[in-house]
Amino acid sequence: MNNNSWCLLLGLLLVIGYCKADTKVWNCKYLSNDLIDLKLVPEIGGRVLQYKLGDYGFYYVNKDLYDKKPPASGLGPENSWLNYGGDKLWLAPQGWSNEKQWPGPPDPVLDGQPYKIEIINNKKVRLTSREDLRSGVKLSRTIEIFDGTTRVSIDATMKNIDTKTRRWGIWAHTQFYAGNRHGKGYNKNYWAYCPINENSIFQKGYGVQYGLVNNISYKPDYDKGIMKVHYQRRVGKIGLDSAAGWTATVDGTDGYVFIQRFTYKPEKTYPDNSSVEIWMDGLGEFVAWGEINRITNDDPSVTPYNFENELISPYATLKPSEEYSFHYDWYSAKIPARKEIVNCSNVGVICQPLDVIYKEEEMNITGKFGVFYEGTIKAVFLNQEEKVVKESFPGISVSPLESLNLSLKISRHKELSQAKAVSIVVCDKNKKALGELDRVSILSD
After folding, report:
1. Which domain of life does the UniProt lineage start with (predicted)?
2. pTM greater than the 0.70 cutoff
3. Which of 54, 87, 251, 344 shows its CA 20 to 30 Å from the CA of 60?
């Protein structure tokens, strides 16, 4: 092997994490760029155990099970669930009544046993489960990262390995850490934001699946069309048939957002009639396994500070050997602390929409955002027909590692006399446009 080949191999090993060793038992793999770091643990149900933006880890990780040898059965004592945390694939709908429901967790195969990992290239891997005879499927997902962004692209696939037709949805199950990172107890400013479907099948725009209907955590904002869920240490779960294609999990104390983006298909049927489901570990009552469960132990080793924001695919009816794939993306960004998420695009989130303040011959364009890409922004002025009147690069660098608190002063000279709106566009480091962050109407002279 020549020197160039050795350098290429070493680079591949570094990027996919063979050279990292923070565990002694688990054979962890990593996908990393200058912004994010994903820890993959194939032997515990093919989990992405952690997603970090800089030094901030979003996911809940069970410290009591960390780096412990997983049992060959995939189950804990007395066939219990080994809740390692992180992100994994399950099947939907969940239930314990018949074979058309997934009776997990636990699930010894899809959740507990090793997945095979394939290195496709230095930014892309595939994790594949063993064949699960009970559900009649095996699961896999291809995970890919990209330079200069926090985006992670995921294609989750289920294949019918049975001799009869099977019908399931794919459940992308993500556990977030909602504990207080600066002291004891839970984070009192931990939230989820998910758009409410204006044509929802649910009377209130969401349906309560577990726990009390009047849980104080549920705070629908019908004026803004957003479902807000505030973690207040009360157990509960809701489902939404959200059509907007995104859901946000926010640490408002430290100012971080994690976005899951997907494509909603209104013509399809969804398990639980939901494209997004949100679960909160906490105290209280809920019904599962055919009985009422009462949670009274506030010890986080028993009742963890776990907050789940989950994606559900449409049902797929598969004949033997047929496959179905569900695509979704993850993004993350630093945002201003104690700010809500108003909207989301493929390049960032809006915490405070664009506004224009006029002063004599000057306009000040303001707004607060989180961005998913490293690069810069440009201001694009549009006329009534949405044709470009003027473009300008104000010299503002953006990064997912820093919130964007925009205050852009523009002179109101003649060339802007026909402008009716201004669009703020995120560009890469080469000034190539990636997408619109927000836009606002302006007053012409």
Report:
1. Bacteria
2. yes
3. 344
